[in-house]
Design goal:
With 203 residues, the chain is α/β, with parallel strands linked by helices. It is 35% helix and 17% strand. A six-stranded mixed β-sheet has the order 5-4-1-2-3-6. The longest helix is centred in the last third of the chain and has 15 residues. The chain is elongated, with a radius of gyration of 21 Å.
Amino acid sequence: MRDGLRAAYGDSTWVDLDRLLAEIYDPTADAQEKRRFYMNQVVASSDAWLEPLDVDAASVPVEGPDDGGMVTLGFDGSRGHDATALVACELNTGHCWPLGIWQKPDGPEGLGWEVDREAVDTAVRSAFERWDVVGFFADLAFFEGYVDRWAEDFRETLFVKAAPGIPSLSICDAERRILRLPLNRRLQRLRIGPYLLPLTRDY
């Protein structure tokens, strides 16, 4: 490890390698941060759902389900400085694929850019028309009005409810404290997907 650090820092003789080694071997320090800062490795944060290598390994040529197949939807919205994505997951296989990704363009084209919310709304409604959507997990940020309308329009078709005993909460929001624990449990079940379902993707 010392030889690797010495090679990495080269002629930066002012760097205290003993201090770096102490931090690297500190069992209380975040392992992912140590890999990132001291070993220049591309890693996910310690609380990330999946590692980048896990996602890459899941990229296999699998076709999406036929019309009427049972799926869940995941949605993360933004206004203009981030990406907005709508992803579907087939329940029988665990296969995930994007129904829409709206990304701010690079360069001058991105100045003042905002996501086309009507296009997002159309994509969501088209998914409900094409497949049997039994669960919808959404981040409310910047799309709260739309999510409220989706919850009202599709609550009768959603088998997975946001909160048991509260029918009006039909769309699961990862940011609501009441939903954080059950949602984390669902993600944890997917995290050990190789033992439950083969998680695949085509994006």
